[in-house]
Specification:
The chain is about 20% helix and about 30% strand. It is an alpha+beta fold and about 325 residues long. It folds into two domains: about 5-85, no CATH class; about 100-325, no CATH class. Strands 6, 7, 8, 9, 10, 11, 12, 13, 16, 17 and 18 form an eleven-stranded antiparallel sheet that branches. A hairpin with a 5-residue loop joins strand 12 and strand 13.
């Protein structure tokens, strides 16, 4: 009976020399959901999987760890259901010096009927795709009084479901917020350090996938991911406002949906507005307004809606999407006419 180990990486591994008695299968291309949760959460934007098998557990684990180390991945033991390389909590984002930065802000707007499960759905998505963004402390006023326990997430999800909630997270995330439905859909948000996302293609892909996966799990009406400059970061990963900050208006307010004057890097349109958005953008006509080079929207359809991406990396200024004028209803909800 063989002992099996799985290794996941972002970049495709090269040729592997295995010792006698150990075999290596792969690399295989994989989707995120093909991997065990512990392994998926340990690798930034995993794309490749290798399986190492041997009659001797020590030899299989040793080679698996070596492959993971050489290719910046992680090695997982299915028999123990544990990631054994790297040891401890993976440090997927480098420490940053205190300085002025921009935020990569993810926001989702959730219909009232889906709100009761929304905080729990977001926690499940973060635990699998971006554990750094899970809460460390949370509450409704600072200093935040509650500590998050991964073994009992209900304390946080119940708190977030029933009122205004803020939370702190680990690098490269600063934390997030949850606002229960009031004269409009519920609102969930997450802030990340633009410096990390801009510098690392793996993080860009991980955030793009997180945004769409969370929107799909939440059944979001609308979502957007954009860059907001004008923030200072302290040594303990806390934010304060710096000069030059330009606050973006919330997509939903008391007067309904506000059409953004600048396009988000990522946009999400729920099932009610999917057809109109695909019809308007599906031809892939390049956008020219406000950019030197035309940009072609990239559309990805999901079970609960469609995600629109503008460019490889998040930027401060992007052209607005040419959405149909009748997309916004009198009630201020996309597609609900």
């Amino acid at each position: 009976m063989s002992y099996d180990v799985e290794v996941a990486t972002h970049a495709e591994p090269g040729a592997i020399e295995a010792p006698d008695g150990v075999t290596v299968n792969g690399p295989y291309t994989v989707e995120f959901d093909d991997l065990a949760q512990a392994l998926a959460a340990a690798v930034l934007a995993p794309r490749w999987l290798m399986r190492v098998s041997g009659g001797d557990a020590e030899a299989a684990r040793k080679l698996g760890g070596k492959i993971a180390k050489q290719h910046g991945g992680a090695a997982y033991d299915p028999q123990e259901d544990v990631v054994y390389f790297p040891r401890g909590k993976p440090k997927r984002a480098p420490a940053q010096k205190p300085s002025k930065t921009s935020l990569v802000r993810l926001e989702w707007y959730v219909p009232e009927e889906r709100w009761p499960d929304a905080p729990a759905a977001l926690v499940r998505t973060l635990a699998r795709r971006c554990p750094e963004a899970l809460p460390t402390r949370f509450g409704d006023i600072e200093p935040l009084q509650q500590r998050y326990d991964p073994a009992s997430p209900e304390a946080f999800t119940d708190f977030a479901r029933d009122g205004t909630t803020f939370w702190f997270s680990s690098r490269p995330s600063f934390g997030g917020h949850a606002f229960e439905p009031y004269r409009g859909p519920g609102h969930l948000g997450l802030d990340l350090d633009w410096r990390v996302v801009d510098a690392d293609a793996r993080w860009r892909e991980a955030i793009a996938e997180l945004f769409a996966s969370a929107a799909d799990a939440l059944g979001a009406i609308y979502g957007e991911c954009f860059v907001e400059p004008g923030w200072m970061v302290s040594r303990n990963n806390r934010l304060s406002i710096a000069g030059g900050r330009k606050t973006r208006l919330p997509a939903f307010g008391r007067d309904g949906w506000t059409r953004p004057t600048e396009g988000p890097w990522l946009s999400w349109f729920g099932s009610d507005s999917r057809a109109a958005v695909v019809a308007a953008l599906g031809g892939g006509r390049p956008l020219r307004r406000g950019v030197r080079r035309p940009m072609k929207p990239e559309l990805t359809e999901h079970a609960e809606g469609v995600c629109v991406r503008l460019g490889e990396r998040p930027r401060k200024k992007l052209p607005p999407l040419p959405l149909p004028a009748d997309l916004i209803s009198p009630e201020g909800t996309p597609g609900r006419r």
